[in-house]
Amino acid sequence: xxxxxxxxxxxxxRVGRVTVxxxxxxxxxxxVAIRGGTERFAAWCDEPLAKNTPVVIIDERSAxxxxxxxxxxxxxx
Amino acid sequence: xxxxxxxxxDEALLISGSKHKDGxxxxxIVTGHGAFVLPIKQKARLLSLALQEAELQEECVxxxxxxxxxxxxxxxxxxDDPASIANAARRFLAEQSRMEELCGRIFAGHLxxxxxxxxxxxIIRERDKVAQEVKDGxxxxxxxxxxVVDGLQIQEIEDPTGYISNLAAPHAxxxxxxxxxxxxxxxxxxxxxxxxxxxxxxxxxxxTSILQAKIQAEVQEAQAQAGQxxxxxxxxxxxxxxxxxxxxxxxxxxxxxxxxxxxxxxxADAEAYKQRTLAEAARDATKHTTEGEAFRQRxxxxxxxxxxxxxxxxxxxxxxxxxxxxxxxxxxxxxGAADARKAQAEAEAxxxxxxxxxxADAINARGAALSxxxxxxxxxxxxxxxxxxxxxxxxGGISGSNLTVLNGSQGVSEMAVGLAAQGLSIFETLRHSLGxxxxxxxNGSGEGADHTEPAETG
Lengths: 77, 458
Fold this sequence. Notes:
The structure holds 2 protein chains of 2 kinds. By secondary structure, chain A is mainly beta.
C-alpha cells in the first residue's frame, strides 16, 4: 500500500485466533500470523466469540482493526 | 557504505525526498532490507520499532465508586504494518526518546477509564474482562498513533478504604477457621495415634518382658536341671558303679564262699568226719578197752575177793580160835565189859551197818545207775573212795581184817555189797561163836557163792 516492498500484505482471508473474547458490541483481539511473525489486531464480530476461537478475517476496518467470523475447522497457528 | 542504509530488524528506514504516487505516503518505508539513499536528494531516518514500556500509577475509581490506587505497566510498540509505521513516523520520528513518556501519560488516562468501567471484583478476578476493557478503551486512540499495545498488566492495587480486605475477610476467616479446625482435628488424630502407639509399645514391652521373664524362667529351669543333671548323672553312675561293685562283691563272696566251702568247710567237714569217726572209733576202742579192763578188774576183783574171802575165812578161823581162846579167857573177867562192848559194838555195828547198807545201797544204786553209762572211771573212783569205809565197817567186827581196795566197775560195787554182806555174816558168825544168841540178821555164810548174782542184777 504505502511501500514498494513486501511489508504490505493483505489481511483478508487470513486465519487467526481469538485472544481477547469478542463481545457483542466491542472489539476483541485476534492474533494472526503475518510478516513472518504474529501480530495482534482488534477484531469485531457479529456474534460474541470466546477465547481461542479460530476465525478468519473477512474485512479490514483499518490498519489494525478487522472483521472476523468464526472459522470452525481451522487448525490455526 | 555511505549511500547504502540497512535498517535493523527492529527498525524501519524512512526515506523521504522522492516523489511517490498519490494516495500513498510520500516517503518510502523500508523494513528488513537495505536501500540506496541518494545523498543530497534523499533523507533517510530510522524509526525504532522496539518494545517500549510505560509505568503507570494512578488513582482510579471503580464503577462502584471505590477509590483504588493502581500501579500498572503498559508495554507497546509501533506497529509493524506500513500504516502504523507511517502514523508513528509522522508523530514520533523526532521525539522517539520521549515517546515512552508521552504514551505513558496517554495510557494513564486510559487506565483511569478502564478501571472506572470495572468493579473491584472484576479487576481482581476477571482478567478477560479487564483485557477487553483495555482493548476497548485504548485501542482506537492508540491505533491513531500507530501504536500497538502488547499488554497492560496491573501490578498492584492499593485499597485505601480496605474494601479488598473486607472482601477477603469472610473468606479469610472461614479459611483460617477451617485451617484451625483441620489442624486441631489432625492434631487430635495424631495424639490419638501417638497414644495408641504408646499403648501398643507398652503392651509389646509388657509382652516382651513377660516373654523374657518366661524365657528366663525356662532358661533357669533348664539350667537348674542341667545343673542337676550333672550330679544326677554322677550319682546314677556311682549308683551303677556301686551296683556293679555289689554284684562283684556278691560274686566274690559267692566265690569266697565256694572257696571256703571247698577249702575249709569240706575239708573241715571231712576233718570233722574224720575226727568224729576217729573219736567214735576211739570211743569204741576205749569202750571196749574199758569194758575189757572192767571185766579184767572185775574178774580180778572177784578173784581177789575170793582170795581175800578165803584169806579172811582162814584168818577169821584163826582168830576165831584165838578169840575163842581169849574170850574164854576174858569171859569171866569182862562179862560186863563184853556186854557193854557188845552193846557198843552192836550199836556201832548197827549204825555202821546201817550206814554201810545205806552206802552200799547208795553205791549199789549209783552203780546200778552208772552200770549203763560210759563213765566207768569216775564211778569206779568214787567207789574206790568209799571202799575203805565200807570195808572198815564191814570188817569192824572182825577187827583187823585186811581188805584189798579194788578198782573196777560193777565188780567193785558188788564187792562192796559182798563185803558188807560178808562183814555182817562174819560178825554174825563171830557173835555166834561167842555164844550169845543173836537174832539172825542176814543169811548164812553160804552166801558167798551167791554174791556173783547181785553183780549181774545190779
